[in-house]
Amino acid sequence: MQSLLPGVIRDLPDVAGIPAAVLIPVYEDAGEQKLVLIKRPMTMPTHAGHLAFPGGRPDPADAGPVQTALREAEEEVGITPGQVEVVGFLPPVDTVQYSLPVVPVVGLLGGVPTLHPSPREVDAVLQPTLRDLADESGWRCEEWRGHPVWFYDIDGEVLWGATAWMVRELLGLPRSCP
């Protein structure tokens, strides 16, 4: 399955300071590779209402971005660290609302996950296929605060911003808008 993820790099990227991290959970279901995305509640202090990968700020006890991503995925959707084979990373991402760089950690799940979303941190779980996300016809580029940004509609929600950038990077799609 990893060959379907051309944007993955094997080694942890160099990042100044202690970064936040997200887990990009990838699994297979009936022959289709899928991602786990969450919709953040409107009550969240950052990225309220946005689609995102499970993740967040590091805890002092976290040994690095991998541990942060795995801990956050377990807290937010119930994916336990033992279910995840970390296969690599994407380049770090800076976001408008977050003061820390974010390290995307790519993990393969051993099967279809049984998810347990935290009602405090997750309004909804979306599980799009990589095939659908790789179809360029579903993407559009728009201006947002003077910058070109990618958007993709999923089940009545809109994927955009840093998470859309991560998905495009993961799939090897062009990051810059035409």
Helix and strand succession? EEEEEHEEEHEEEH
Q: Estimate nothing, just give the exact number of structural domains.
A: 1
* Helix fraction bin: 10-25%
At CATH's second level, what is the architecture?
A: Alpha-Beta Complex
Number of helices, counting only DSSP H or I runs of 4 residues or more: 3
From the N-terminal CA to the C-terminal CA, the straight-line distance is 29 Å
Query: pLDDT under 50 segments (min length 5)?
Result: none
* Gyration radius, in Å: 15 Å
Per DSSP E runs of 2 or more residues, the count of β-strands stands at: 11
Given helix and strand content, the structural type is alpha+beta
What characterizes the major β-sheet? 5 strands, mixed
**Fraction of residues in β-strands:** 25-35%
Q: CATH class, anyone? A: Alpha Beta
Task: Give the name of the CATH superfamily.
Answer: Nucleoside Triphosphate Pyrophosphohydrolase
Shape designation: globular
Overview of this structure, please?
The protein contains 3 helices and 11 strands, in the order βββββαβββαβββα. With 178 residues, the chain is an alpha+beta fold. The chain has one domain: Nucleoside Triphosphate Pyrophosphohydrolase (Alpha-Beta Complex). The strands form 3 sheets. Strands 1, 2, 5, 6 and 7 form a 5-stranded mixed β-sheet that branches. A 3-stranded antiparallel β-sheet has the order 4-3-8, with no helix packed on it. The chain has a 3-stranded antiparallel β-sheet with strand order 9-10-11. A hairpin with a 2-residue loop joins strand 9 (139-144) and strand 10. The radius of gyration is 15 Å and the shape is globular. The mean pLDDT is 90.
